[in-house]
Specification:
By secondary structure, this protein is α/β, with parallel strands linked by helices. The protein contains eleven helices and 16 strands.
């Protein structure tokens, strides 16, 4: 069968290639064999391929952090899934392969109303969004949160899930032409990263407290985020899109006594909470309040082009239904 192997750490477009591997074996006790339908190229997959992620498998290795497919067979003792179920594939099982063997307990059955392409994108961004909104601050309806990179794929999830909890969202973008897009997603305030932003945001939210700030950018953008947060607020760093170390002023750190956290969804303390988070996110998707758009699909044989497209921008899915 066909799979995509990472052969060396470094340039993903050069070091990822489609290969022929042995057919997956029959599932053992507690396992299920899943025929992969679609697997996204996630930001974390590019980080892993570049050798700068928290996971570093021995090479050559299949990679791919999320995906969905159909259960083909189950091993002895498996009762939570059956052949024919569409499932998302759990963390710890790399997905860029025609078929994968996975621990059956980690499989999540996707509701019939959610199509295969959308299902493949449920595990990372929507689930991350639920955890970010749940694990640091006890938020009540009408509470405000702030987030930057507000036009990103994960921000789309954060906004939809926050709205489903009746929270208020202050979004930050880098260009004014992005404001209408983020307002359409449901953000209650959208402003452009600038020295004037904190004052604009305070006027817009009427002096309300902002107890949670979600930073995906780093660098000076973190300082802007910190400046709009209330005393004792929690600032969570969950990505580093700028590639620059975070900036936070001593005043915000000392006077406001901000709590600063690094977040990775696969930290040990979050693993027991993943299924509940995925369940909540999936309900929001199934309700139609959150859509997970993608730009295009590529065959596994087109992995070089797929990676280059992903690096330029846009959500790319690998289509394992068509491997020739």
């Amino acid at each position: 069968m066909k799979a995509i192997h990472l052969t060396a750490y470094g340039n993903p477009a050069q070091n990822l290639r489609m290969v022929e591997v042995s057919e997956a074996s029959a599932p053992s006790a507690g396992e299920a064999l899943v025929r992969v339908e679609y697997a996204p190229i996630a930001y974390s997959d590019l980080l892993l391929a570049n050798g700068v992620y928290l996971l570093r498998p021995k090479l050559p290795s299949v990679i791919g952090g999320e995906g969905a497919g159909l259960v083909e067979a189950i091993g002895p003792g498996v009762t939570n899934v059956k052949a024919g179920d569409r499932v998302t594939i759990p963390f710890g099982t790399f997905t860029w392969s025609e078929k994968v063997l996975a621990p059956a307990q980690g499989l999540f059955i996707v509701p019939p109303s959610i199509d295969a392409r959308t299902a493949s994108m449920l595990n990372i961004n929507p689930t991350t969004a639920v955890l970010l909104l749940s694990e640091f601050v006890k938020l009540k309806p009408k509470d405000w949160i702030a987030l930057n990179a507000a036009n990103s794929q994960i921000a789309r999830c954060l906004i939809a899930i926050a709205k489903s909890r009746d929270l208020k969202i202050a979004g930050i973008v880098r260009r004014s032409e992005l404001i209408p897009e983020v307002e359409k997603l449901g953000a209650d305030f959208v402003g452009v990263e600038s020295p004037e932003l904190p004052k604009q945001m305070q006027m817009a939210i009427g002096g309300m407290q902002i107890s949670l700030g979600l930073d995906a950018v780093g660098g000076p953008a973190t300082a802007t985020m910190a400046s709009v947060l209330s005393p004792g607020a929690h600032l969570v760093i969950y990505a580093w899109l700028s590639g620059v170390p975070i900036h936070v002023s001593q005043g915000d750190l000392i006077v406001k006594r901000l709590n600063i956290h690094g977040f990775w969804m696969y930290y040990e303390e979050f693993l027991p909470k993943m299924r509940a988070a995925l369940t909540e996110a999936t309900k929001v998707v199934a309700s139609g309040k959150l859509t997970l758009p993608f730009t295009t699909t590529y065959k596994p044989s087109e992995i070089k082009e797929a990676i280059e497209h992903s690096q330029r921008g846009g959500k790319v899915l690998l289509d394992f239904n068509h491997t020739n």
